[in-house]
Amino acid sequence: MHSQQTCFTPFIQSIESDTLPQRFTFPFCYEPHPLCILASTELQSQLNENSHLKLEFQQHGKMFGVLIVKNLQGDVGYLSAFSGKKLTSEHHINFVPPVVDLEDQADFFYAENKTINQLNYELEVLLNNPEIKAHERTIAELFAKQKKQLEQHRDVMALNRQTRKAKRSQINAELSGDALAQQLNQLAKESVDDKNQLKALKQNWHEKITHIEQQLNTIMGEINTIKSTRSRLSTRLQKKLFKQYRLLNSPALKKTSWSYFNMRLILYHPREQVIVPHPNYYNMLLSTS
Question: What is the DSSP pairing of strand 254-256 with strand 246-248?
Answer without folding.
Answer: antiparallel
